[in-house]
């Protein structure tokens, strides 16, 4: 994925050099659109989700609920590719009967798991740099309920 994005960026830069009269805002929007389309291929399709996702403003924000009975797998819920930086507030609760459910955040190549409090709640503030950034749920024979929200932080 990273190599593909690098090749796309190089091709776009070559195009911009050869077309000096191109409006820089149009070029920026064009480049960002290419990166977004490439990044959206990593998000789990609605019909393949273990839970249910409702998007808000874009693929980075919304709510996700899952009622699981022994599910195993991964939902890539929110995120995508972008050349813009973004700030998100991610929070929710995991009600576990049996098994395990883990919230994972992928910031380009770095992956971290969110810690969950004793009551099942979790919360984090994310500063997303350009590239591919994703919010995921991993399930291992999970019985229980998940509620997850992702919102843009207000400056």
Protein architecture, described:
22% of the residues lie in helices and 52% in strands. The mean pLDDT is 84. Strand 3 and strand 4 form a beta hairpin. It folds into two domains: 38 residues, no CATH class; 111 residues, Jelly Rolls. Strands 1, 2, 3, 4, 5 and 6 form a six-stranded antiparallel β-sheet that branches. With 155 residues, it is α+β, with helices and mostly antiparallel strands.
Keywords:
155 residues, alpha+beta, Jelly Rolls, 2 domains, globular
- SS-based structural class? alpha+beta
Sketch the major β-sheet.
6 strands, antiparallel
Succession of helices and strands: HHEEEEEE
Q: How many separate structural domains? A: 2
Give a concise summary.
This protein has 155 residues and is of the alpha+beta class.
Layout of helices and strands:
Layout: H1 2-18, H2 24-40, E1 52-55, E2 62-82, E3 86-107, E4 110-113, E5 121-128, E6 131-152
Antiparallel strand pairs: 1-2, 2-6, 3-4, 3-5, 3-6
Helix pairs in contact: 1-2
